[in-house]
Specification:
9-stranded mixed sheet, 376 residues, 14 strands, 5-stranded mixed sheet, alpha/beta
């Protein structure tokens, strides 16, 4: 199911701490970075912090710039982003700044926590997620019910850790402050793994006053039938490759990327690539990888169109090529229509031999775009 673009934002000391153990909050950033954070807040639909951050820091989570607030209103948005917090217990102080500044607020909690939160008289919408907190359900609710497309997560470390471990973060904006904390009892940004994210890709690095901003994106695919942020990024690339195909009235334009479990791109391809007028995207990509490469067993194939189950131009369809290569996970945007093959079911062929097929329908229109002339 679709979920918002999730941006994690944090500042840490050189030795990886979010704070010290003193009575006052440790300021890791300066005025220039505070203004940068204000700009990011103004660009999002919602800001999320954990209940622990509300208790420890008592944040207001506002857009401070009047010009940025005015720009939001001019664009048809609320003056302030929606404020979101998460609490399994529902133990929240109704006197905290969080509830008395900005516009709308929402609390995600458990069934038990919801009764406690409502009894506290919080000025917020209280949404129970079940017996336990479920981050996927939370993100789907924000996207589908509250219309949130960009979510900024400002902490704390436990929240950041959970989202990264489940592969639900699309971007990490990390500010490195030029100081050391050195106290083993102080809170760290990230807790122990395992993490799904694998190796991150550095998107940007720049000084902001006396701190350094580093922006990263995850690259590792999800696991099994659970999509992650990296799945969206790689499938978007496959759809871009489909647009590079030479046009045809007798075959679809499809793009494909093969990605290892650690986020390494193994190969990419598109329909009718090179001098072969009938090569399919998955076939073109797999042909560039050495047969028997050990990474294929845990790799993911991203294809803008469901891999074919039958074809006239080659002995083996793409679903069979994928299985024979040892790949057992496929992410696609669009089920193959009956334009050329009646009752095409590449997913069925894959799943019958133990492969996992994930469909991200939010990319279907992108996959269809270079094939409009075939769809009547």
């Amino acid at each position: 199911m679709p979920h918002p673009y999730v941006l994690l934002s944090a500042a840490v000391s050189l030795d990886g701490y979010l704070d010290d153990t003193g009575p006052d909050r440790l300021l890791l950033s300066g005025p220039a970075d505070f203004d940068r954070v204000d700009e990011v807040r103004a660009s999002v639909d919602a800001i999320l912090v954990g209940a622990g951050t509300i208790r420890a820091d008592n944040p207001r989570l506002l857009v401070n710039s009047a010009e940025r607030r005015a720009a939001r209103v001019a664009a048809g948005k609320p003056e302030y982003p929606l404020k979101v917090t998460v609490s399994g217990s529902g133990d929240l102080d109704p006197a905290a700044n969080f509830w008395h500044t900005g516009d709308e607020k929402i609390v995600y909690t458990t069934e038990k926590g919801a009764a406690r939160a409502r009894a506290a008289g919080l000025a917020a919408d209280v949404v129970p997620l079940g017996a336990e907190l479920d981050w996927r359900r939370l993100l789907e609710h924000l996207h589908d019910v509250r219309g949130v497309r960009r979510l900024m997560v400002e902490g704390g470390g436990r929240i950041h850790t959970q989202l990264l471990r489940q592969g639900l973060a699309d971007e990490l904006q990390l500010v490195l402050a030029p100081l050391f904390v050195g106290d083993p009892d102080a809170p760290r940004l990230f807790g122990p793994g395992p993490y799904q994210g694998g190796r991150l890709r550095l998107v940007e690095t720049r000084p902001v006053g006396d701190v350094v901003l580093m922006r990263y994106e995850p690259t590792a695919p999800g696991a099994g039938s659970h999509p992650c942020a990296a799945d969206h990024r790689w499938l978007a690339l496959a759809c871009e490759l489909a647009a590079a195909c030479p046009p045809s009235r007798t075959a679809f334009s499809v793009g494909a990327v093969v990605v290892a479990a650690d986020g390494t791109e193994l190969a990419r391809g598109h329909s009718r690539e090179g001098e072969d007028p009938v090569v399919h995207a998955e076939e073109a990509a797999l042909s560039k990888i050495t047969p028997g490469d050990a990474r294929l067993a845990s790799a993911t194939v991203y294809s803008s169109l469901e891999p074919c189950a039958r074809r006239a131009s080659r002995p083996a369809p793409c679903a069979r090529l994928i299985l024979d290569a040892g790949v057992r996970r496929v992410v696609t945007a669009w089920r193959e229509p009956d334009t050329f093959v009646v009752e095409a079911d590449g997913s069925g062929v894959l799943e019958a031999e133990g492969a996992s097929v994930v469909v991200l329908p939010e990319y279907e229109e992108r996959a269809k775009a270079p094939n409009r002339h075939l769809l009547g």
